[in-house]
Amino acid sequence: MNHVYDVIHRRRDVRGQFTGAPIPDEVLARVLSAAHAAPSVGLSQPWDFIVIRDAATRAAFHEHVMHERDVFAATLPDAAPFHKIKIEGVRESTLSIVVTYDPDRGSPAVLGRHAIADAGLYSVCLAIQNLWLAATAEDLGVGWVSFYREPFVQQLLDIPATIRPVAWLCVGPVTHLEQTPDLERHGWRHRTPWQQAVHTDRWTAPTPT
Amino acid sequence: MNHVYDVIHRRRDVRGQFTGAPIPDEVLARVLSAAHAAPSVGLSQPWDFIVIRDAATRAAFHEHVMHERDVFAATLPDAAPFHKIKIEGVRESTLSIVVTYDPDRGSPAVLGRHAIADAGLYSVCLAIQNLWLAATAEDLGVGWVSFYREPFVQQLLDIPATIRPVAWLCVGPVTHLEQTPDLERHGWRHRTPWQQAVHTDRWTAPTPT
User: Fold this and answer.
1) B85 closest CA partner among B106, B69, B107, B64
2) Residue A26: what pLDDT?
3) pTM of the model
4) For chain B, what are the domain ranges?
């Protein structure tokens, strides 16, 4: 069940199914090694991975996320549907992995970044998806929490000001992966067919290829 | 040979090995469908894929890239090592896929994006890595060209001003995938061991987990 397409389509963004069971060291090593094998602009490998098991650190982050949850809820005309949705599994998951971006790595001349300042940030995201798919292949769940302010995470984890946190990922064994994304199960939003996203030769109304 | 780890480690950023042979429709469909199965903030699926076969369009882009290659070369104290490196396979590859980001999709309330404006852009990159791995599993090469100015690509492909081009990918059958990244083979830069990128509990000097 570890074939690429199977894993790509089985992968979910997990909030509610973490068991908290341990992750064997060799499994975590394979997952981090897969992340580190991602492509990067100018071979700059501008990512770092902070593996967080410390309970107090995760509790402090959880509290911050709960606050940001309220901030977002306050922007909604009707917050009731949102409040039904679990948005993180920070404390129940086995560990967290924070992925960061260092724009100075590979400087002064990062091949391929002179015209597109964000290219290094893009590389970090490619590593995140490698991590996510490798974890899925290992039957681990991954949940990307994005209800946070970057300066809070920098301060919490002693991250230097020049390094940008890109993702807070909750990782660990799960009871199961849902077949349908949480936001779709809760009626928040529905997935579109892939053909709707495809254009031919130039930007037009999407048409199937 | 299509297992996740094999594909993740076999994947390369291809410039020189494209054959130009056709891509069967069903293969392209699987690859695009895999890209579209990526996670996205608030299930916004903010990406589009412009599949470009038109030779004139690709030639115009190629010319622009050659100009930007010179712009970058002019910033280097010694451009000789750079000039040995092929940076794109726009005309030799079978087709190009431009991946774009639409920040307005899923608005007004994208769940998970209120605190991190770039979260939608991150989603697009996750789709790109899905595409890349699926293509690798199909024995296709993918090369991300980043020597371009975004406004040029917007104009070339009639992309609306609110939509941002994120990647120009060259895609197609290849004679082979190199075992070592081009930039490493050419001595431009070398990969680091993954352990160097891993920190424990907070930002510190990297230590193995």
Assistant:
1) B69
2) 98
3) 0.96
4) 4-187
- Mean pLDDT score across all residues of chain B: 95
Residue A152 touches partner B, C-beta closer than 8 Å: no
Residues sharing a CB contact under 8 Å with residue A175, sequence separation 6 or more, in sequence order: A17, A19
Q: Which of B4, B40, B132, B171 is best to mutate for the A interface (most A CBs within 10 A)?
A: B4
Ranges A15-19, B105-109, B197-201: which has the least confidence: B105-109
Contact of B159 with B171, CB cutoff 8 Å: no
- The minimum CA-CA distance between A39 and chain B, rounded to whole Å, is 7
Q: For the domain A4-197, what is the CATH superfamily, name and number?
A: NADH Oxidase (3.40.109.10)
Note whether B67 contacts A: Cβ–Cβ < 8 A.
no
Give the pLDDT band of residue B108 (cuts 50, 70, 90). confident
Residues B31 and B43: their CA atoms lie apart, in Å, by 20
With CB atoms and an 8 Å threshold, state whether A5 touches B115.
no
Superfamily per CATH, domain B4-187? NADH Oxidase (3.40.109.10)
- Per CB-CB distance under 8 Å, the chain B contacts of A82 are 111
